[in-house]
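S.,

Sequence below, as promised.
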Amino acid sequence: MAVKKILFASSEIHPVIKTGGLADVCGSLPIAIKTLRRDIKVIMPAYADALAKLNKIKTIATLQLEGVSTPVRLLETRLPGSSVTLWLVDSPQHFDRPGNPYTTEQSVNWPDNAQRFTVFSKAVAAIALRQAGLDWHPDLVHCHDWQTGLVPALLAQSPDAPATVFTIHNLAYQGLFSWQQFKSLALPEKLWSHDAMEFYDQISFIKGGIIYADMINTVSPRYAQEICTKQFGCGLEGLLSHKQNQLTGILNGVDYSQWNPSQDPHLRHNYNTHSFHYRILNKTDLQRRFGLLANESIPVIGMIGRLVSQKGFDLLLSALPKLVQQPVQFVILGSGEQTLQDQLIDATQKYPDQVAAVIGYDEVLAHQIEGGADMFLMPSRFEPCGLNQIYSLRYGTIPIVHRTGGLVNTVINATDTTIQKGTATGFWFDEPTAASLSEAVQKALDLYKQPRLWKKLVFSAMQQDFSWRRSARLYLDLYSQAEAHSNAANQV
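The prediction came back faster than expected:
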């Protein structure tokens, strides 16, 4: 029996609120699923910043959740730019505060994150278990990352629960909290067990999703394999290997209505493969925006992301002294660890004619980097899927990536053979080292000096299709597998 009604739970959803790729996926995938004639509703916390962006909000239910002192409202509106219903869990004491969904304005984790996302998870579970007084009930609940990992664990306590799917976007973020915090959450005591959610004397929200969901997936096939190894498993590789029959990888798609150089409103000059010559105007605009010499012959390498070790910014910083010995410019957008931010600023001061950076995140500028840079660098030590390299392909901004995770599943390495065949779309480097990164950048710069071959590479990249429709169909197959697993488990 096909799964028709889906409750889609995430801690962030673009364009309502975003800190990273999780929001992009959770803002696009439900729309793609709805086009396949499924009744899907998305649910997220009612952050203050989210409510400020939304219109026509109404209250549809009031929930009294165990362990929560005040009633929680369930609000309803539409996901902007779509016909998908958006529900928001409104608990002002937990979500009406400044900062992003997880941290204060000083980038420190909220000390009550365990309580905040327990409230959210309990509200999702109440809806799924028909305890919210609604006339709509899901066949399946699709949960994303540690912030919703408690939902499958709560639902597993009831024989009448719908099927569950748990998607791991990044295993490194696990939602780990102390025994004292666990005691304050009013959760079933049996969840504090090695066979449940206890993980080295802490409660692990992500382990709850892995243990109790009917099916588990990651956001690329390669990452699904990698997390079963000690190198990438973050201590959960044994459990994930044990659950391999319930684990798969589905590559993220992208929303080409948002990321398309032929209609991107953030670019002064739109272009496609037939009007590619206009792109050079975006490049010189970008160089001026970053205070660099506007010279179309100098290759520009862009980089966008969180300034954390996972993303490999330190590898670039180590490689810069060698790379800047030749004509090349770097434009960087990101924020994160203070040490890396300081080192990046130091680099811009040491190489002011070749390295420029904006600390923070700016959606418009991110589009302009994609539409103006010649190459895009992603030296991530691990990358569950990655989206910027996929955006880069469509924009003809050749990705240079570490050979890991979803980067391997989306970028075809430029070799003599793949370049001649016209299948190459970017460059890989094998090891997360400054030397390996430098070698790959050098290969890209050498090919850039051969305009005919470079244009062949660019046009091959721009013709790649990673739209959501194919991935959405794979999720429908996964939903069916989850329902079959749930039915079989209930018959035991």
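The chain has 19 helices and 17 strands.

Coffee later?
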